[in-house]
Task: structure prediction
Amino acid sequence: MLRKLANFLNWEGTPKPEIDLNYKLYEELKPFRLPIILLILISIVGTLGYIFIDNMSLMDALYQTGITFTTVGFGEIAPISNLGRMFTITLIILGYAVLVFSVGILLEVINKGNLLNTIKERSMLYKIARLKNHFVICYHNEYTIEVAKEFRRAQMPFVVIDNSPGFEEEAIKYQYPYYIPAEPHLDVSLRKAHLSSAKGIIILSKQISENIAQISTIRLFEKELGRRPYQIITATESQNDIPKLKKLGADSIIAPNKLMAQRISTMAFRPDMENLLEEFLYRRDTPLDMEEIRVPKQSWAIFKKLKETHLRDIAQVSVIGIKEKDGKFIPMPKGDTQIMIDSTLLIIGTAEGIMTTKKILQKEQKPEELKYV
Result:
């Protein structure tokens, strides 16, 4: 009944992480079992002792035991015999011994640091479990720092995974909202990052071997879950590695050296164009955007002429380039240019217009909007 009411009111429970670390927390708390057992035994022995020695009631005996072995100094709540006083002295000594023993265990556990780290990590995992359509960024370096800045500006949720020394301090320094100190390629690390609900993954290691291993791990994880493919973005220092990463399943590959060279040459030869790109393409708050849109095989627009799609009239966007399946690029296509299977359109327009264009091209039947154009 309560479950039906919760569903009707659209109430959702607190999301739980795939790995909640309860088992690890229990392991860290195991040393406290003996002090708790001794505390219970002293309470039982003390209560029974006062009942049998001085004929106290159950509540009086329990209360007298509590104030005695904790040495609070409240005194006797009822007259106690000499035997009772000897019992009280013994109880005080035992209580003090258990207290010292318990403090010693507490300090030992705190000095190890594992308990506090486990509590912090468990809290972080519960926060990450609330994320949906987030990005998982593997490896922390200067690229990650810049990507994190842009994601924060765009209010895009992300989780950073890295196991380098001092990563936690670096994560706090650079204001990563969610982070996991662990090896990125491990299955347990990906589950901690709640990858099952993620939109994609960004792999930014400078070692090509780590990028390759990470891509393979993600694609296997993806098949295990039986979900739609993740968007995988990675980087490489060498142009020769791009074909390898593409074959392994990377969707987008960034070569920082090449990008830097292109930007510098643009600034040198066409400074006005560089300013325009900075203004309209790299800023998050710009009204203008540019995106590549792949035309699905089942799209109604296949084999249609560009002018028949009426994208400019419906979505207020412009097609400034078409990349065909064989790699041929058609710049500034005319209206009579035919859209072929697996063509990719380079669109410029507003973010809303680009989103409308995607919806139009994904339809299998001719959109209703075209009847009125």
The longest strand covers residues 289-294.
